[in-house]
Write a structure and sequence with these properties.
alpha+beta
């Protein structure tokens, strides 16, 4: 009978331990989950910028009109996109290159930004992309 009594007493003292452990680990788990989401958002924005730069370089290499506006339009879902273009000179041929540089600020939601150079949650970094294509004029 003593064994049963000790086992029962031990169970009563462990009451609530799981809740306390969960409460201690929940912030770390949430930081990890939302950090992964933030990194995924940043990667998606970087890929979008790279594709917009490629689109702009293609337009500049073929001497199309409205390169800056069309490059900004290709950066779907990103705000404050800045574009700088080096156009092909007429008759330059494939020895010359058209170059497009695209940049946009990205704001993190979680404190993961502190690891990447920001100061706190809500801080932003500037993502950039560059594309070069030979001239076709």
């Amino acid at each position: 009978m003593r064994r049963r009594r000790l086992a029962g007493a031990a169970r009563r003292t462990d009451r609530g331990a799981a809740a306390v452990e969960f409460a201690l680990l929940l912030p770390l788990l949430m930081l990890l989950v939302f950090g992964v989401i933030d990194v995924g958002r940043a990667l998606n924005a970087q890929i979008t910028l790279a594709e917009a730069a490629r689109e702009g370089a293609r337009l500049a290499a073929t001497d199309q009109p409205d390169v800056v506006a069309r490059t900004q339009a290709a950066a779907v879902g990103l705000a404050n996109v800045s574009v700088s273009v080096t156009f092909c000179q007429p008759g330059a041929g494939p020895a010359a290159d058209a170059e497009v540089r695209v940049s946009s600020p990205f704001s993190f939601v979680t404190p993961i930004a502190a690891l990447l150079g920001g100061s706190s949650a809500g801080s932003s970094i500037t993502l950039t992309a560059r594309a070069v294509m030979p001239c076709e004029t």
